[in-house]
Each structure stands twice: as C-alpha cells, then as structure tokens.
Amino acid sequence: MERINFDDQISRNKWKSISLIVIIFLVFLLLGYVISMFYSEGVFFLIMIISIIVSLGYITITYYNSDKIALSSVNAKEAKRADYPQLYHSVEGLTIASGLPMPKIYVMQNDQINAFASGRDPKHAVICLTTGAIKKLNKQELEGVIAHELSHIANYDIRFMTLTAVMVGMIAIISELFLRSLWFSSGDRDSKGGAILLIAGIILAILAPIAVKLVQLAISRKREFVADASAVKFTRYPNGLIHALSKIKDDQPMKVNKAVASLFMSDPFRRKVSGMFSTHPDIGERIKILRKM
Prior knowledge:
65% of the residues lie in helices and 5% in strands. The protein is mainly alpha-helical. The radius of gyration is 22 Å and the shape is elongated.
C-alpha cells in the first residue's frame, strides 16, 4: 500500500484550497467586468460598493461572534473540569503537542458522536463535543477527534472560510443587484452587441453564485482533509481518528441547526448527497487516506 506523508497531505490540500479561492476571485473579477461594460461607471461602482458593504458588514458581525452563535445554536454548556477531568487532560496534552493555547471546552447534549471548533483565532477558540462522543469513544479515539478540531484552530479555518464566505456573498449580492436593476434600466439593448452582452451578463449573474457556492463546498471538504492529516501530526496515531470516524459512520443522524452543520467534524445529518454538493468528504474516503499515513 502506498504510504502518504501527513505533511504532504496537509500541504497539498492547503494549496488546493488556495487555488479554489483564486477561482472565486476570478469569477468575481469576471462578473464585475461584464457589469462594468453594461452599465455606466457610476452605476457600476454603486453596485460594487453596496455589495461589499452588505457582505462585509454581515460577515464581520458573524466572524467576531462565530463561537457564541455556534454554541448558542446547539445549546452547548461550558464543561467543568471537575465533571470532565479526562477530557481536560486530553485537550491539555494535545495543546502542548500542537503548540496552541488552551481553548474553552463545551459540551452539547446529544447521543451521537460529533464535535466542532469555532472562534476567530487560537486565542479566542472553543471546542465543543457531544456527550455521545465522550461516552462512546475510548481515550485514543477521543484524542483523535480533539486533535482534528484543534487542527481547524491551528490552520485558521474559521478565518479562511470567512474570507471565502465574504467573496461568495459579494458575488451573490452583485448578481442579485444586477438582475434586479434590469427592471429599471434599458441599457444598450437595441444593438446586436448590446443584446449579446445583456444575455451574457444574465447567464453569468445566474450561474456565478451557483458556481462559487460549489467551489466554497469544495474548499470546506479540503479543509477537512487538512484537519485529518494535522490530527495525525499532533497525535502520531492515525488509528484513533480512524476508529472514531468508523463509529461516526455507523451512528445515527443528529438534529442541529443547518446554519452550523458545516462546522461539525462530519455531516450531522448523514445525508446521502456526496461529491460536489456536500460540505464534508465521504467518511469512507477519509478513513482510506488515514490508513495510508
């Protein structure tokens, strides 16, 4: 069996993530270019300014309160050291191994196995585990899950995905404003060139948000692969995470807010949808890669 070096896996998926976000940026530039050709300079800048302000405003509020929003949505409670001494011991050991500051630890009442990390940077990070994960996983498996979530913190995944969300949001808003503005502006539609440009602009405005959303989902999947490989780097024991993922695969779906579903270690809904439409990689594929490390 061909072996995979976890450092190579981390580097490869990070570069893929960067390449994908470049694609989103190029779509943003293309959309802006087409709109600038169709409208006057004043209208073009108005559309761009509105989209940037709305997108940045919404995402900034979400970004600086991401941990509070996520924890509140699942009704998580801070874990007390007296109640979870082994959990604290595991997290402390892995933070030393990873060189990260100690995150705040939360627990959510749920019988299924899952976990998530949130926070804008390592100094403002939280880790939340389900009671099912604490009860059903042994020490090595639980450490594999914790290491995976610490990896998201170490790799600044919340910040990276926020940047992605800003760009995706701007493209969606620009497209919406462009399509709505067609009701109030005739533009140069009489000439053949103007009609072709209009049709091209409409098609691009419709397809661009869909395309960048798919790219955003692809980035989310790549970050999960990075977190898996980083977890192996922290623990030096892939079997812990492998066995945890195997138990998660056989577990029942969770009932959580869809808005925070992508934060979890695995898709809480256990949806059958996979590939380009999923927020998480297939668990079987993740296990297959981990077995090669």
